[in-house]
Design goal:
alpha/beta; Quinone Oxidoreductase, Chain A, domain 1; 2 domains; 6-stranded parallel sheet; 11 helices; 17 strands; 23% strand; globular
Length: 358
């Protein structure tokens, strides 16, 4: 599936004559078994990342694009995307060929791909750190190539479709959680808790021994509690801060936010003295009102979480192989129905991740 430019779903073009990529010296060729969807796909296609867009990811905007988008700053790092581009960051599959400098013994390995192709040395250097399916071609294809180190061998009975729920959502959630230094016995509130990142954050917070308060639609309560949420708050509640305080009997230690917009300030207000807030997204809107006194006089820590530190995927693979993380596969679509899959994704009625397969 080839993205021909920024805009609506009409910019996605299904092709059966696209050439199979050839692995470079330190790359492997992977036969894609499945590739998961994530917000990055929508954000990049619509150029929502550009600072000229001030609204959240709406259903109409996600399908048709944003008139205010600036194509010159359309990537997560506000750089220019080169088209045509094959998107898709969340790949599980098998190595079928290798480039020079890569051991041929890797052929036949089952792998999950780490989407962060980080620069050596300063891995936070956005001019040299790439995201799979954004600054280079990704996994919405029969075959894809990636740097040898980013193809992580995995041994698990989980299917390719299940494994394709992990790369973007779980590395993001792990980084989001780690940035706060969440400790055993602390209480964390998680917005967007039924989405890929939110549902992953529930599991990862529980593994850290924390008490979890989830914010989501009430119809998803039972499933979120099965994942480990101690309490679920209706995302449409009139007074979110008070609902959080009522649920925990006071303030919370940590807030993990993928929603932003009008949710931001109630989360900050609900933090205890010395509390920590971390965000990896703002689907409800990137512009917020902020009472700076909350930050100053409550000694708060606010962090963003985008570029994921080296080694994160290897940690997650270890947890998967130990059966400590559970995939949350909401629905699968064939690759040629990627547009339909994205429409379903934008409706936000699912819990977990949507995946496409060939």
């Amino acid at each position: 599936m080839v993205l021909t430019g920024h805009g609506g779903l009409d910019k996605l073009e299904y092709r059966e004559d696209w050439p199979t990529p050839v692995p470079a010296d330190n790359e492997v060729l992977v036969r894609v078994g499945a590739c998961g969807l994530n917000n990055t796909d929508i954000n990049t296609r619509t150029a929502w990342y550009s600072k000229t867009v001030t609204e959240g990811i709406t259903d109409d905007g996600g399908k048709g694009g944003f008139a205010s988008a600036d194509a010159e700053t359309g990537s997560w790092g506000n750089a220019t995307i080169r088209f045509p581009r094959i998107q898709g960051a969340d790949v599980a599959g098998e190595i079928v060929d290798v480039g020079a400098e890569v051991a041929t013994s890797r052929i036949g390995e089952r792998v999950i791909l780490d989407p962060w192709i980080l620069a050596s040395g300063n891995w936070l250097d956005t001019s040299r750190s790439l995201y799979f399916g954004s600054e280079c071609d990704g996994g919405y294809a029969e075959y894809t190539t990636i740097r040898n180190e980013n193809a992580v061998r995995i041994n698990t009975p989980q299917s390719d479709a299940e494994l394709a729920t992990y790369p973007c959502a779980y590395t993001t959630a792990e980084n989001l959680t780690a940035r706060t230094g969440l400790q055993p016995g602390e209480t964390v509130v998680i917005t967007g808790a039924s989405g890929g990142v939110g549902s992953a954050a529930i599991q990862l917070s529980r593994l850290r021994g924390a008490r979890v308060i989830a914010v989501a639609s009430p119809v998803k309560t039972d499933l979120l509690k099965q994942l480990g949420a101690d309490h679920v708050i209706d995302r449409h509640v009139d007074n979110l801060e008070q609902a959080i305080r009522d649920a925990v009997g006071g303030a919370v230690d940590v807030a993990l936010d993928v929603v932003g917009g009008s949710t931001f300030m109630p989360l900050v207000n609900a933090l205890c003295q010395g509390g920590r807030y971390s965000s990896s997204g703002s689907i409800a809107g990137p512009l917020v009102e902020f009472d700076l006194r909350q930050l100053v006089y409550k000694d708060l820590q606010l962090t963003g979480a985008t570029i994921v530190p080296p080694g994160t995927m290897h940690r997650l693979v270890s947890l998967i192989e130990q059966d400590l993380l559970k995939p949350l596969l909401a629905q699968t679509f064939p690759l040629h129905e990627l547009g339909k899959a994205q429409e379903t994704f934008l409706q936000k009625k699912h819990v977990g991740n949507i995946v496409v397969e060939l």
